[in-house]
Amino acid sequence: MIFLVKLILIHLLCINNKIYKEYIKSINNKIIEEKVLFLTLNFFFKKILRNKFKKYYYQYFEYEKYKKGDIIFKENEKANYLYFIENGELLISSKKSIIENYNIINKIEKILNLKEFENNLIDIKNEILDMKDKLFLKDKKILFYLTNKIIVGIESIFYNF
Q: pLDDT tens string for the chain (161 positions)?
């Protein structure tokens, strides 16, 4: 069998493997910095310096993405995590009465009145008040409609599990 070999002119751009790895590392560091910034702007972590947070605490966070319709946790299940909503929208439904849900929100609000959170209360109290305004009924279920920078999971503490 005879093979016909033709010379084909190709042009390649090459990058040194070490330089490529450094570039990928710099992109990863930028992503981490953005996530650390997001978390340290939250009232829970505002008092921790960013570098200290990155060094000691960031390693314990997991970044998760959910699709529309995914269930993070169900009512009467204790949330195993606190979820910090970086972006997107979240719908929480509850079979509890409006009064029970208002009481849970009020308990959270009272906890946040502790002196250590005093400087950060304005933002979070506004978020809680917004949450009260976003409470509505649909098919006998109470729904909370939440968006960016809200913490989900903290309310399970107040459901008496």
A: 666 666 677 777 888 999 999 999 999 999 999 999 988 887 778 788 999 999 999 999 988 888 888 888 887 777 778 888 888 877 777 777 777 777 777 776 666 655 555 555 455 556 656 666 666 666 666 666 666 666 666 666 555 43
| DSSP-derived secondary structure for 36-67 | HHHHHTSTTTTTS-HHHHHHHTGGG-------
**Residue 92 φ/ψ, nearest 5 degrees:** -115, 125
Among residues 74, 91, 85, 87, the alpha carbon closest in space to that of 159 is found at: 74
Where are the alpha helices (H) located in the chain, listed in sequence order?
Answer: 17-40, 50-56, 98-111, 121-133
Tell the residue number behind the tokens 């033709």, with chain if given.
6
Please state whether the predicted TM-score (pTM) of the whole model is above 0.70.
Answer: no
